[in-house]
Amino acid sequence: MRGTQLFLAVMAAMLLVFGIGTAIGNRIAARAREQDRIAWARQLNLRIRVGWVLVLLFAAGFALGEAALAVLFAAASFFALREFVALTPIRASDYWALVLAFYVVIPLQYLLVAGGSFALFTVFIPVYLFLLLPVLMAIAQDTERYLDRVAKMQWGMMICVFCVSHAPAVARLSLPGYDDRGWLLLLYLLLVVFLADLLAVVASVFWGRTPLRWDPTKSREGVLAGAIGAVVVGTLLWGITPFRIWQSTLMSMAIVGASLLGSVVLTAVERSLGVRDLTLESGVPLVHGVLGRIEGLAFAAPVFFHLTLYFFAA
Amino acid sequence: MKFLPPLVWLARLLVGAYPRWIGCSPTAAQRIYFANHSSHMDTLVLWASLPAALRANTRPVAARDYWGRGGLRQKIAEEELNVVLIDRAREDSSADPLDPLRAALDHGFSLIIFPEGTRTPQPLPGPFKSGLYRLAQEFPQVELIPVYLDNLHRSMPKGALLPVPIISTLRFGAPLARIEGESREAFLERARAAVIALAAERPQAEAAT
């Protein structure tokens, strides 16, 4: 199939699936009466909304090219980091470190991705910024909780900017026999991550015996069912990837595994930063925010990027 | 659908400006919102966090010596925020600096005031000036709403030109009751305590910053 036809086909499928999903989600939300049912419907609809973000992202990426994708993920990094910083003990004296992080590092990192300079984009934050941030924060001569502040700032940069920037980088990989299809590979990654999360929430209602300690809206059985579902769909999507069918199964498993671990880790991070209860209707922006939505992707994107680079790149 | 004014959009992009209505709800009642003042962003952020219908009817009170010096800043203050300028430096010693505020209240506007009178770049507010007390006495029908602005001292510390993005929440408390025969000092201290009490409502554990 040629590019445009492929785009239209995938787009139509996504619109159909998400349209049905939204209709069902709204119906469930309208019918929910009990407290936990309402909370669950809210979690479900939050995730379905992410599906529409995918559709928009996909359309923009196709229409405007891969540079536009970099801009969209840069925005995600920006909002996620903004939420992360609000939860850390970073102080007014760290002002210049924050200026650097938001106004220099984020644009530069995504410029490197868009320009395809892989050698630099994989070391820019873990090496250069790793060394520069503590310098800036030490020059301010405020040593109260210094290591605490530096460490949390660097954690935020790694998760919100470095890890997330691997997603648009997937679209920039040059793979033999797979020219100008980078956006499809990115879509593959996003869909598998998204479906593992969504299907887990849905399945948890039907097999909800043991709620997860880190995320009470999901059960252990539901997560397993969601993971299997996402791997099955990922396998069936092999047609839009450069992989063979069995390779696509393994890749989906790697993506689903990494994104599960990502949400375990980031939930622990959020808890330790003091967001009390993730199911609470507290108005804490984090819970509805970008950080909670990118947690799986933050782990899955670098893993998928490097696996593909190692095994499939020219 | 109406598009957000660019200033509101900018405030939300940078600092989120998430309102949490803890002790009252956003209604059309005439109000004086009084808040802690820790950065130049405060006026804009508090105003931007209000629902559009309330925003049109709410005027921030701003110092003439900062906002009224012409140029872009004054343009923003007058055309977008619709501020009431207050003569903090008392250039004309015969006039009462509160007169423009009284006029605005007489016209039915709600006001946003920062009773510390100047910025305190710390989490908790300093002592309040007496203007709030006098307005409370003269306009007994106007609700006095304490507001606590979180995180803005981190977003734009004193001397900084550019705000950095940090999520900030605004907590709106219950209307301050008026107590018959209360002294000015006691009233101002009670008002300040109401703002500080909202500071303790922070959802995050790391309140020590």
Describe the protein.
- The complex is a heterodimer of chains A (314) and B (209).
- Chain A is mostly helical.
- Chain A has helices at residues 3-31, 35-64, 66-86, 95-115, 118-139, 146-170, 182-206, 220-236, 245-272, 285-288, 290-312.
- In chain A, helix 2 packs antiparallel against helix 7, helix 5 (118-139) runs antiparallel to helix 6 and helix 8 (220-236) runs antiparallel to helix 9.
- Chain A starts with a helix and ends with a helix.
- In chain A, 45% of the residues are buried.
- Chain B has 209 residues and is an alpha/beta fold.
- Chain B has 9 helices and 7 strands; from the N terminus they run H-E-E-H-H-E-H-H-E-H-E-H-E-H-E-H.
- Chain B has helices at 6-15, 42-49, 52-55, 64-67, 71-80, 99-106, 131-138, 152-155, 184-199; strands at 18-21, 31-35, 58-63, 84-86, 110-113, 143-149, 169-172.
- In chain B, helix 1 (6-15) packs across helix 2.
- Chain B starts with 5 loop residues before the first helix and ends in a 10-residue tail after the last helix.
- Chain A binds chain B through residues 78, 81-83, 85-93, 95, 98-99, 102-103, 273-276, 282-286, 289, and chain B through 16, 18, 20, 121, 151, 153-154, 157, 160, 162, 164-169, 203-206, 208-209.
